[in-house]
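To: structure subgroup
Subject: Chain for Friday's discussion

All,

I'm putting the inputs and outputs inline so they're searchable in the archive.
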Amino acid sequence: MTLSPVARIHLMITFVLVMCGVAGGACFGWLLGGRVTGVLAAVAAGLGAGIGSFLSRRHVAAFLRPAPAPAAVSVPVSVSVSAPAQAQAPAPVPASDPHPLPVAVSDAVGGYAEGVADAVLVSLATYQAAAFPLTAFGVSEEERDARRGVAYRVCAHEGLPQSVRVSAAAALEAVDQGVDAGRAHAAMKALSLAVYDHRTTR
């Protein structure tokens, strides 16, 4: 017998509820009175969960069933119109589209650029942490080189905004030197401000 998707979901929910009830009842009963009480409490909790899930199957099915599509409303149109009425009728005004295509495309492009800028900030922060570790031998040379390679690849991405690209180049230069932690921190702060400014100017 093939079950519908709603029935299968309800069956899985029932199974999970019964298993949780059995496990919880067994633990609670065993803590209160030992093995026998644990078994009785597990059976009672499992039966209660199963019966409750069975009784609420219609509500669950109604909740999981997708809503029907709205029916199309037909508007009656008058066929016979007198000539003076046709002459006096105003020309229809086209409705303006609240979300034209260029706005949607620009939103998508701006969101993509924000994601790339955030990725640049994260990769440079991990590279800075590897270049200036808290302990002397906290990061190996292989890990530092790997983080440096990731930072350079992300900073060379085509979708990166120009202002963020310039700040990222300055931060890479400061972190690459690996001598002045204060300068690297200031460059990373400038990069984070550039990413924030790009997000707020959209």
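Points worth raising on Friday:
The mean pLDDT is 76.
The chain has eight helices and no strands.

D.
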